[in-house]
Amino acid sequence: MHIVLITGISGSGKSVALNVLEDAGYYCVDNLPPALLPSLVGTVNAEGTAKLAVAVDARSSESLAGLPADVRKLKNDGHDVTVMFLTANTHSLVARFSETRRSHPLSHELRPGENPAARRTLIECIAEERERLSAIEQLGHVIDTSELSASKLRTWIRELAQIDHAPLTLFFESFAFKLGVPLDADFVFDVRAIPNPYYDLELRPLTGKDAPVIAFLDAQPSAREMLEDIRKFVEKWLPSFKTDNRSYLTVALGCTGGQHRSVYMAERLAAYFAPTERVVLRHREQS
Predict the structure, then answer these.
(1) Is residue 57 part of an annotated ligand binding site?
(2) Do 22 and 152 have their domain in common?
(3) Residue 134 assigned as binding residue
(4) Is 12 part of any known ligand binding site?
(5) Same-domain pairing of 86 and 228
(6) Is 15 assigned to a binding site?
(7) Is the model's pTM score more than 0.90?
(8) CA distance linking residue 171 with residue 249, whole number of Å
(9) pLDDT at residue 61 is higher than 70
(10) I need a surface site. Which of 22, 86, 221, 245 has the fewest CB within 10 A?
(11) pLDDT digits (tens, 9 = 90+) for 247-269
(12) Are residues 133 and 196 in the same domain?
């Protein structure tokens, strides 16, 4: 079984790392007391799980000392174990806790004889956590996330765990403005500026998937120009979204009724990108 053990300083990105592994199909467990690691591995291995990711933090300080021995035993038992230790400088950690307004996990602990009203400061909690984890910092690969964006960290985690990133799925969706803009749209293009087949009585009952409507719009210079502009825009920026580790990108095309122009545009764009990208086409206003 491939086991990824994630540990390190709170606020350094352990949740980001665990989410990456979960998206890659790992069975993930967060905040596991280290003493339970061997039994967890035995249980999930017996169930046929091939990939396990476990996050361990300093709250289980009593059993942290046995973690190196547990890792060695797992390797001796034939498991492929990767250990990641995430850290960051104190300035970055303080800034992150300030942004999220979350308390440090150790701030809820009391030292023996400590007054319950006298909680430790964030700086004190970070220092305490560094001390507790110092013995296991060199257990695996250390990643300093101080100046690392979440996107870059996700990329590094995939590379370290040898995970192939799933290709981005490109959605083209037609819709009617009168019924509202799709909430999942990343980009919305208004195609109501091009001639409307609705005003041709012969074309009105048809949709943008029918040959007469397609021929009508193909003959409109404004429709061709708008289609080309949208295509170039998507083509230009798609690599950036892939680099940003996006799994989905939704391009919504809207017209008045969601039957003719938006459908035509979505169909044309999907056909153009389908040979090279993972494309999903949907028409919201059509059953």
Answers:
(1) yes
(2) yes
(3) no
(4) yes
(5) no
(6) yes
(7) no
(8) 6
(9) no
(10) 221
(11) 789 999 999 999 999 999 999 99
(12) no
